[in-house]
Design a protein that fits this description.
The complex is a heterotetramer, with two copies of chain A and two copies of chain B.
Chain A lengths: L2 H15 L1 H36 L3 E6 L5 H12 L4 E7 L1 H12 L18 E6 L2 H12 L4 E5 L2 H42 L2 H9 L4 H41 L8 H31 L3
Antiparallel strand pairs in A: 1-3, 1-4, 2-3
Helix pairs in contact in A: 1-8, 2-6, 2-8, 2-9, 6-9, 8-9
Chain B lengths: L1 E10 L3 E11 L4 E5 L6 H8 L7 E6 L2 E2 L8 H6 L1 E4 L11 H10 L5 H14 L15 H13 L5 E5 L7 H16 L3 E5 L3 H7 L2 E6 L2 E7 L17
Parallel strand pairs in B: 3-8, 3-9, 6-7, 7-8
Antiparallel strand pairs in B: 1-2, 1-4, 4-5, 9-10
Helix pairs in contact in B: 3-4, 3-5, 4-5
The chains are: A alpha+beta, B alpha/beta.
Bound molecules: adenosine-5'-triphosphate (ATP) (2 copies) and magnesium ion (2 copies).
One magnesium ion (MG) binds next to α1 of chain B.
């Protein structure tokens, strides 16, 4: 009789014998992991949102008057090579004036007189992937003789950087805390279930069961129950997320929400893994308390 | 086989359950332990399968000092000792059959072997018909007999029975005691704590009497040398 | 006081524990219930305090049909019936004292009264010295005596004792049985299921013998009309 | 012996007798409520943030040329009476041109020629308390003969309204779900603890204890344990929040974060109340299962 087969049979039988305990444990695990899963989904989306917002940051490099097209192209190539730069476009002073005119809209007539002495400058518009890249770009071109001025909403970038950094830190911290809470809840629940069977365990020991004959079926059972909880949680969260996603798509299409497929794999994986590890750890910890010779 | 050397046991609240007990049991011997309630009989038996350790003195089983046994070896010691517990100690969520089979399962026996021997043991105590019942569905005597079946199912070298007939009618009790006596004839060392004076008188074996934690008598009754009595087969360790 | 009218009990798996039992016990009577293990003695006693209901027939206690008792009245019925359970049924997380006191606490007795009577009951069974011990710290016989102390502590009108001396040495057992006999002389109806033949023989009271769920004998032994015997005081309900 | 006194004593004794069960229950309750409390704090802040953002919404009511100051003041008074209007200011066309000039900044010279034929109009600037009030204002003044045009970034308001509505709905939904989860966790934990004592309960019944003698001490105990968990949770969340708040104040001063004093009372109250109710309900539910005659 192999130990694994024995564990499997015993865990199955034991779950059948104590359906109440088993269901209570599965549901506790499911709820704890549901909270974790919800949070992970929210975190993934916040992260995505932060990146999306950061991608809106542009840097404008205003060029001095009369820069030769060749010089300008080499500068453009230089900047394009900087990590984090996603797109770089040349905007001539004529285009810039047209844009200003568009912005004025109904008041565009105001600009009518200034066509011949256009006071605007040629510029390179840089789109960056993250707020952090802005500094790199500024640093790189600041000294160039071609460059008149760099404009990038310093303050906005600084805020964005600190907001997203705080967000990431917060998410990490919260994930850690929630992970701990989940661990504690599941472990607690498995310990209670082992506690409810402490008499049984002590009897088993008295009739000659080794530690492993008692331990492994219980650990196995802990894993099965916690994993069951994890699956329930993943399923529930997936269904709700999909539903919310569709609702959001209809009403709030401008917000970038990750599709289910992009996140469920990762989140589900983390949740099930957490469940399994915690289930095993919970059972082992529980027994350290109640298994004494 | 079993030897107590100057064993004392002090529980919490300073309760002295055993005080300087010295005593030896040879292979195949059949010994009754008698004495008033609270005299220390169960404490003494519990030391044989190492549920309790002595506060002072030493207990040897098959030459091994139990206090110095590694924790990992305890289960193997216990598999060689069948125990009928005074309070039965059946697993509440297993059927009669599974309770008895459990003592074989832990030894890693093959499943057809488990089935065969468990059935046999249940037959012996007259519980074949109740094998699917859970402990709470059994009468007191049935629970006691289940505990007995579990104790003998893996043919242990030592059998320890704590009040094994307290819930049985005199006739069934006598039958089962006769059975224990028989297995001691086949080489098993048997230790029985009991209050059933009529049975003790009838079997005429060695009787150890405890009072307030001390052995006050250790008699080889008449019949000790009788040809059919297990008591005759006792060899000193 | 107690009347069984054609009572049958069928448990799960179609186990028939009682089959057409008819029997009456008068106030102050003292009755032994005997029979082999599994005969249905405990089942019969459990019906008196309504732990089980009959599958067929009726059980009356003080004229009330127990099957038609409202759930809310059951605790009050039980407070009038002291029970010594075959498996003791002590609360594991309460001390000996608290276990005995509990039967008084539920009746709402005043605390000095609880203290006085509990101490008295423990004295009676010889457990004053162990009153701070938890059940797992007691010997088998001590647990049994605790259960007995709890059963008598609130002077019930009916006392039901299931194998109350199975874990006691003959002398203590006889003393306690004598005590039960005495309280029946004072008007308590006492029902005792037991295997202890020597005690049954000695007390010479009414003996009901069960076999396979049927009453096969219901004897008034010699001494029934003896002046000091409680058996003589039985009045029909 | 009063029932209440009895419950109190019994609950105290019972907690002392089963310290492991009690601690496990308190901690489960604490963690479940911690999650709830964290969420409530977050929700209060999001709500606050949404309100803060909404307060940034302005409506500009452009007036026809040549409206008499008296008419204009009566319109102003009318608008000021609308629910949700927080402030209303008259901006003359001269002020408006000055603002435009300020906005142009270095390019203000562009506007030099237009001083004499100022194309801008007089306007009333309305600050509203919520995006929803914008519509009320627009509705109220649209028909007035004094009004030339109303401008309020229709799209932005629509987005804001739907975002904040979604946020509120989401928060409400999540709060409900988390409340349920909390309820389930605590109840489960108390049920397990009653389950572990089902033997005891059945023995009590057998020696004549009425339902209430068994039930109320257990309910009381459930309440005490859950309330204990709630206090632990409130304390923990308060300390962490205070610490975070100080950290945020240093780094992200522009975000409006509620001070601890403003939220702890409400959140703590909700958490403790939830704990108590759930503790009682959990114990009662648990017993419905194990209390049978
Ligand atoms: N809850 C139950 N479910 C199913 N069967 C039961 C239950 N309780 C008792 N029985 C069966 O009913 C029969 C009578 O049991 P009971 O406990 O009344 O016997 P008893 O006379 O008290 O025996 P003992 O002397 O061994 O205590 C037995 O065969 C037992 O297995
Ligand atoms: N775990 C324990 N903790 C404290 N005291 C104990 C413990 N176990 C037993 N005792 C006490 O030790 C003494 C001897 O107990 P033991 O169980 O050995 O008696 P016994 O001879 O088996 O009695 P019985 O015939 O009643 O079963 C008793 O007074 C008992 O209360
Ligand atoms: Mg004993
Ligand atoms: Mg019985």
């Amino acid at each position: 009789m192999s130990l694994f087969g024995y564990c499997l049979r015993e865990a199955r039988k034991s779950i059948g014998r104590n359906p109440f305990l088993s269901i209570a444990t599965v549901f506790t695990a499911a709820i704890a992991l549901l909270v974790l899963a919800t949070f992970l989904l929210g975190a993934a989306n916040l992260q995505n949102l932060a990146e999306f917002v950061e991608r809106q940051v542009n840097v404008a490099i205003f060029l001095r008057d009369g820069v030769a097209p060749a010089d300008r192209d080499s500068l453009k190539a230089n900047v394009a090579g900087i990590a984090g730069v996603e797109e770089i476009t040349f905007v001539s002073r004529e285009t810039a004036l047209q844009r200003l005119r568009d912005k004025f809209g109904e008041n565009a007539a105001l600009l009518d007189g200034i066509d011949e002495f256009n006071p605007l400058r040629d510029s390179l518009e840089v789109r960056v992937g993250s707020a952090a890249a802005v500094d790199l770009v500024a640093e790189a071109v600041k000294a160039s003789p071609l460059v008149d001025e760099i404009s990038y909403g310093k303050e906005l970038v600084a805020r964005l950087v600190s907001v997203t950094r705080a967000l990431r830190l917060g998410i990490l911290g919260l994930a850690g805390l929630l992970g701990l809470a989940t661990l504690f809840l599941i472990q607690n629940s498995i310990r209670l279930s082992v506690f409810a069977r402490r008499e049984e365990i002590s009897i088993m020991r008295l009739v000659g069961a080794t530690d492993s004959v008692i331990r492994w079926p219980l650990v196995f059972e802990g894993i099965v129950l916690a994993a069951g909880g994890a699956l329930v949680a993943t399923l529930a969260v997936g269904v709700v997320y999909q539903w919310l996603w569709q609702a959001m798509g209809r009403n709030l299409a401008f917000l970038p929400v990750l599709p289910l497929a992009a996140v469920l794999g990762r989140v589900g994986g983390v949740v099930v893994l957490t469940g399994v590890v915690i289930g095993a750890a919970g059972a082992l910890l529980a027994m350290r308390r109640w298994l004494r010779v | 086989m079993i030897e107590f050397r100057n064993v004392s046991k002090v529980y919490d609240h300073n309760i002295r359950a055993l005080a300087g007990v010295d005593f030896r049991v040879g292979k195949g011997e059949f010994v009754f332990v008698v004495g008033p309630s609270g005299a220390g009989k169960s404490t003494m038996l519990r030391m044989v399968y190492r549920e309790e350790l002595p506060s002072e003195g030493q207990v040897f089983v098959e030459g091994r000092d139990l206090a110095r046994l590694r924790a990992a070896s305890v289960p193997y010691l216990r598999r060689g000792i069948g125990v009928v517990f005074q309070d039965f100690k059946l697993l509440p969520s297993r059927t009669t059959f599974e309770n008895v089979a459990f003592a074989l399962e832990v030894t890693g026996a093959r499943s057809y072997e488990i089935k065969r021997r468990t059935t046999q043991a249940l037959e012996l105590v007259g519980l074949r018909g109740r094998q699917r019942a859970y402990p709470h569905e059994l009468s007191g005597g049935e629970q006691q007999r289940t505990s007995l079946a579990r104790a003998v199912v893996n043919s242990p070298k030592i059998l320890v029975a704590d009040e094994p007939t307290g819930n049985l009618d005199p006739q069934t009790g006598r039958q089962l005691m006769q059975y224990l006596h028989n297995i001691s004839l086949m080489g098993t060392t048997v230790l029985v704590a009991t209050h059933a004076r009529s049975i003790v008188d009838e079997f005429q074996c060695r009787v150890v009497r405890l009072e307030r934690g001390r052995i006050v008598r250790d008699d080889q009754r008449a019949g000790y040398f009788g040809p059919l009595s297990a008591c005759a087969d006792g060899e000193e360790v």
